Amino acid sequence: MTGVHEALAVIAASARAAYAGGAHLRVRSSGIVHQVAMTRWLGGQLMPGPACMVGVSGWDPGAAHPDRGEVTCRRCLKLHRDESPTDQMELFALSGADDEPEPEQLTAW
Does residue 36 sit within a domain? Predict the structure, then answer.
């Protein structure tokens, strides 16, 4: 088994080196370019994969390859967009204590 683990480690190290310089990721001949994130692979090795966690043809390390183009995956872009919590819409407007209805104004269902 040691030989298998060593082989997996060499494959994973080679894949990590291919993405080392900020390369993004493209799956086979897809036109979509993904942001890269390290994911767990066979034997606990870390492999580059799409940040959006889209499937990449099983465990095939050859299905993905580096791409220097801009990230075009909507899910990856959404994951890395910097939104402040103030952009959140209010579900319920909080009102002051003066606006609370008197008990007799409440209607029973």
Answer: yes
**Structural domain contains residue 93:** no
Higher-confidence residue: 24 or 86?
24
d(CA 47, CA 42): 9
The domain total for the chain is 1
- Domain membership flag for residue 25: yes
Instruction: Assess if residue 108 is contained within a domain.
Output: no
- Reduced to 3 states (helix: H, G, I; strand: E, B; else coil), residue 18 is helix
DSSP state letters, 42-82: GGG-EEEEETT----STT-GGGEEEE-SPP--HHHHHHH--
Tens-digit pLDDT profile for residues 13-69: 999 999 988 899 998 888 999 999 998 888 899 999 999 988 776 667 778 889 999
3-state secondary structure of 86: helix
Q: How confident is the model at residue 103 (pLDDT cuts 50, 70, 90)?
A: low
The boundaries of the domain holding residue 39 are: 2-80
Can you read off the two tokens belonging to residue 25? 């990721």
